[in-house]
């Protein structure tokens, strides 16, 4: 059985303690992962701090060259990395609409190359006979990255690349559920990036907690649950550590009476069940006008019934397992509550294969606000469909929860849809689509879905502080 190592100061580092990584498709142990100590974390932070002056002194062009080399090296190792993704996360090698491991890997390459092409130029505030004043963006120092298990490689890239491009160095902790792809990425990166620029430590909650309270880490970037995000805020407060928090969502989509159901249904299905529903910005609550409700339910059910859930390495698998037992238990509990409330299960709803953490694509109608399946983020392949008659009710329902990551409006009347979209309390709103993100469009949440943004120029700025340079001419 393969053992992986930590990446500290450009070296592969072993540990005395390891933990098992589980394949969610068959519950087998696929590898032993190093369990870092706080001493090793401190060594990683010290290495990042030591590397910072030299790395930050490079130009954007010089750092960009290294990151583009990294993208090329990652591409050269495509097969191995995608295989690791399927083994530890469960997503199919291809899957429905090719939204599996290949999708995550392709997104990883696209994000590295697009982000590395960006820059933050000085901004001239004043230039006259009295003074020349410029606004400069300076790197913060050591950035701590804590990532989740749903997109281990891609979300890691979202954290790492803008931090490195802007001149910071990084200490990263991937989820203990899916650490292997990130550790292999680190092995590749250590031969391209200078020692100490990127360090990867793995372990359980105590390592993450030690990072968030560490005096030598200037910023924490976290993607994960709202409760953990709030705990990080408390831990980081004593050091005034900067934060970017992309937390839980329970995105609502509103389908208006004039929506083109034939055109909308495939997009709604794909964006609800992308990565088996294990996506922060997936469509998780679907509010449908009564006049098109039955038509949309039928279209979605037909698609669901054509899908196969199974091992991600099987060629005909569309959707793999949920990543872990705890998440499967959450989905089962929400389904149980919906059944007890008399909801109508259009398809799915019962576990028939217990060899892995499998749950079928499930659609639920005759359900309302207040049900757990509607009010709580399911993060799995089960979608509640709520009928409405008055669009004002749908807007109120979409906004009633204390989350605000994404939302969508579906209509052929773009002007009307835009007006409704502007009233949704969320960081990103889509019209006639959902969960579509790209490297140059800022993305982040409001309310309990966090604060700060990723992607684009606004995302780069999150990894910098402002230095105002004032030059007086007399």
TrEMBL record:
The active site is at 246. Residues 17-469 form the Aldehyde dehydrogenase domain. PROSITE patterns: ALDEHYDE_DEHYDR_CYS (PS00070), ALDEHYDE_DEHYDR_GLU (PS00687). Residues 57-84 form a coiled coil. Gene3D superfamilies: Aldehyde Dehydrogenase, Chain A, domain 1, Aldehyde Dehydrogenase, Chain A, domain 2. Pfam families: Aldedh. Keywords: Coiled coil, Oxidoreductase. Belongs to the aldehyde dehydrogenase family. This is Aldehyde dehydrogenase family protein. It comes from Psychrobacter saeujeotis. The lineage of its organism: Bacteria, Pseudomonadati, Pseudomonadota, Gammaproteobacteria, Moraxellales.
